[in-house]
Design goal:
It contains 16 helices and 13 strands. The protein has helices at residues 3-11, 21-37, 54-66, 110-125, 150-153, 160-182, 204-207, 224-232, 249-260, 267-274, 335-345, 357-370, 390-393, 408-415, 429-441, 446-477, and strands spanning 45-46, 71-79, 82-91, 97-102, 130-138, 154-158, 264-265, 281-289, 305-314, 322-327, 352-354, 385-387, 397-398. Helix 14 packs across helix 16 and helix 15 packs antiparallel against helix 16. The longest helix is centred in the C-terminal third of the chain and has 32 residues, at 446-477. Bound molecules: iron/sulfur cluster (SF4).
Length: 479
């Protein structure tokens, strides 16, 4: 944890905004992964005192160590005023211990090794002999087949060597951290990449409050090196970036429009894109969930599972669209029903149009892979896709209100005034995921679940209707 973040965490915790429902869902999923990790050995003693009972947790852990417990889960240790809680400690026959840290990722990351190095430093300081240090993470080749077995779901990587290499530096690092913590004021640390890597910092709202809207931090695909250079030049607003600053062609065009306030339209590029569209035209959009712990047999950790699809079908250019939709009913795997819907409603010819089409294409390819018999008829669909985002990515249309962004949510109100996602109960993909997960939880009343289903239909339908309107507008602009 960087010094300033740690200082704020110790001294100004009230600055952390309350967790929103989407963040809470992430916490809940993390807790579920932790609970599954604790099943890895099938036995062990859980030190389950909450954070308010730390002295008791430390005492209980020490008693378990002294009694020679076989496996200790969530043990609490303190050394040199540094407290750690260890996911799993396994006692070896020679009296030493193996330290295992469980993570919800599908690989070992640098920050995991640093985390485990601190744990090992504290454990050894507290008198334990550590033989192996292991990082337990989700095996991304796992495919659910019946009840989930923690031994198959997780894979353990031995990181003893990597942790050993960091160990000599841990003590001095912790001393520097403690010095910083003792300071009456927060360390002077500017904003930067560290605010969102490896994860979003909970103090962003506090530290970023001086950053204006439409700043250099919003320039798409601008490297942190260049953002820092601009900041050092005293430039924070996108429109104040000098014309001769090293930007990509796309960024330069966005800057030109940002400064002039004028819309840039390339009719030739738009017309070229429109010539690729073949009718009947299927405007298509999926909504997905991405559970870390697979819900359905045949699915994998973090696999994006489509639960909803909206189709607006146009028989000919300019024809009134027909709207069709599918939404999983919420208690079983939504994919078989979704496959039937696609097979029944997408004919053998015509373009499938999606916004950021690689997403929809991947979902269809996943369905064909996971349901080889029932979804075989979908195998030709990926080759029929066109991407409505393409003209915007290729800067055929650049609007100052988009400030360099090309997402559907930015493009729609700029290109089709009066149409936006404002005021919708569900207004983005994250909220749609959360809504469906809430329906899946079974904790909602029938009325509340029905309300969410209605909100989901409005949202997903808006996505494909937006595409109809954008295409119509591009047609007008191309002549
Ligand atoms: S928002 Fe950035 S600067 Fe502020 S504490 Fe977090 S990481 Fe540090």
């Amino acid at each position: 944890m960087p010094y300033k973040r740690l200082w704020l965490y110790n001294n100004k915790r009230a600055l952390i905004p309350p967790a929103g429902p989407e963040q809470q869902q992430v916490f809940d999923e993390g807790n579920a992964i932790g609970a599954l990790a604790r099943e890895y050995y099938g036995y062990g003693v859980l030190v389950d005192m909450d954070p308010a009972q730390l002295p008791q947790a430390i005492k209980r852990t020490a008693a378990l160590v002294a009694a020679g417990a076989g496996v200790i889960l969530e043990g609490a240790f303190v050394f040199n005023k540094v407290l750690v809680r260890c996911d799993i400690l396994k006692h070896n026959k020679d009296g030493s211990w193996d330290l295992m840290e469980a993570k919800g990722s599908t690989e070992v990351k640098d920050e995991h090794v640093q985390d485990v190095a601190v744990q090992r430093y504290v454990l050894e300081g507290a008198g334990l002999t550590i033989r192996n240090t292991l990082l337990m993470h989700i095996d991304n080749t796992f495919v659910k087949d019946g009840p989930i077995d923690a031994k198959k779901f997780f894979t353990c990587e031995d990181i003893t060597q990597e942790v050993g290499a960091l160990l000599p530096g841990v003590g001095p690092d912790l001393e520097r951290l403690q010095e910083a913590l003792a300071s009456p004021a927060a360390p002077e640390v500017g904003i930067g990449k560290h605010c969102s890597h490896p994860a979003d910092c909970e103090f962003r709202a506090h530290c970023w409050k001086g950053v204006p809207e439409h700043s250099i931090y919003d320039i798409p695909r601008l490297s942190w090196e260049k953002k820092n250079t601009l900041k050092a030049m005293g430039i924070l607003l996108f429109k104040n970036v000098p014309d001769n600053f090293d930007l990509s062609d796309g960024q330069k065009q966005a800057l030109k429009v940002e400064k002039s306030g004028e819309v840039l339209i390339n009719k030739k590029k738009i017309a070229k894109f429109l010539r690729r569209i073949k009718y009947p035209l299927y405007h298509i959009d999926f909504e997905t969930i991405r559970p870390a712990i697979p819900l359905y047999d045949g699915s994998r950790p973090y696999q994006q599972l489509p639960f909803q699809v909206s189709l607006h079908v146009q028989a000919a250019a300019g024809a009134a669209p027909r709207h069709l939709e599918y939404l999983g009913e919420g208690s079983t795997d939504p994919r078989p029903g979704l496959i039937s819907f696609l097979l029944a409603n997408i004919g053998p010819a015509g373009t499938l149009l999606a916004y950021n089409a690689s997403f929809e294409i991947q979902k269809i390819e996943d369905l064909v892979r996971d349901f080889p018999e029932s979804a075989a008829g979908l195998a030709a669909l990926p080759g029929r896709f066109e991407d409505l985002m393409k003209p915007f990515l290729e800067r055929a249309y650049v609007h100052p209100a988009c400030h360099g962004r090309v997402s559907l949510k930015k493009i729609l109100p700029a290109l089709v005034p009066g149409m936006s996602y404002e005021g919708l109960a569900i207004a983005n993909g994250g909220a749609a995921q959360l809504a469906y997960c809430n329906i899946l939880s079974g904790r909602l009343s029938p009325a509340a679940a029905e309300k969410l289903r209605g909100d989901l239909k409005v949202y997903c339908g808006q996505d494909t209707l937006a595409m109809v309107k954008i295409l119509e507008r591009l047609g007008q602009l191309s002549v």
